[in-house]
Structures are given as C-alpha cells and as structure tokens.
Amino acid sequence: MVLLRGINIGAHNRVAMPALREALARAGFDEVATHLQSGNIVLSSQTEPEAVADACSRLIADTFGLTVPAVARTHAELEAVVYGDPLGVEAIDPRLYQVTFCRQEPDSGLLDRLDAAVEAPERLYADGRELYAWHPSGIARSRLAATMARLTAPIGGTARNWKTVTALLDLASR
To answer: In the prediction, which pLDDT does 12 show?
Structure first.
C-alpha cells in the first residue's frame, strides 16, 4: 500500500487516478489499484516499502511534475494497523478516527508536542510509525489534527480516516 500526501486536495497537486495507475503499471508495479481520489494506492512489488514510496514519488515528479511525499506499508503491516486497533472501543465513528502513517517513528519530543495538543475527549496513541487519533468533536476543529498535520509532515506523515484504512486492507486482501 502506498499513501500519497496532499494529492487532489482542492486545486493543488491534481492527479487523475487512471493516469496514475497506468504510470505505475508502466513502471513495473503489479496489481495496481486506487481507492478514492486522494492518493491511496494498493499494488504488488517485491521491493522494500521505503524504496516503493521513493519510486512512486519520483514517478509522480517525472510524469506529473509534482513533488508528492509517499509512505508505503506491506500487507502485513497494514493488517497489524487494523487488527491492533488500540482505540477501537472508544472510536465509534470511523470518519472521526484517523491513523497517521509516518515514514519514520516519531521521536519523544514530537510525541510530547502532540500530547500537549490533545483536548479531552480526544485521544492519541502512538505505536511505532503509526499515530492513532480519535477526534469525537470533529477533525476540522481539532487542534490535535492541525498540529499532527503540521508536525508529522517532516517525517513523511499522512493521515487517513479509519473507514479508508479498513477499505485499503479489504482492497489489498482481494
């Protein structure tokens, strides 16, 4: 699975998913599928996830002229995210429950800054390179969500709501 940061949000970084799928297939990736229009890609590769993410970013730069960070996870890693769901009992609305996938594990300083942005009843849980955040009062008004987007950008963080995360696992499992 490859997640692109900042694709097709408003008028910026516009990429047609059919053209992206075609470019990825031409580049040698197998079983390429996309979910929604926001840079969610499922594909097959024998290459390590970090190299896949880098290859996708280069391909987008070369083909579409855009600088787009990417994060990749294996099928097993995505399964671990879904089946290890630490906030599932509390996070009852999948649209308000996000996972931020980071290219590297957030350090303790970043985690402290994120913890400081949590306002009850929000919850934040860090597990390796993933950050799980429950925003029961809404994402748009959440100081934590805004802080996460800003602070995780340098470590390649990109967030997806739980509905998208589980749909990606379903797509990858076919």
So the answer is: 81
Structural domains in the chain, CATH included, are 2-72 (3.30.70.1280), 83-172 (3.30.70)
Which strand (E) or helix (H) includes residue 133? strand 130-134
Task: Spell out where 27-87 has E strands.
Answer: 30-35, 40-44, 70-72
pLDDT in tens, 47-68: 999 999 999 999 999 999 999 9
Question: CA dist 151 to 49, 68, 109, 111, 171, Å?
Answer: 22, 17, 11, 10, 29
pTM of the model: 0.95
pLDDT, mean of residues 101-124: 97
Distance CA 147, CA 156 (A): 14
From residue 145, alpha-carbon distances to 54, 106, 137 in Å are 26, 15, 11
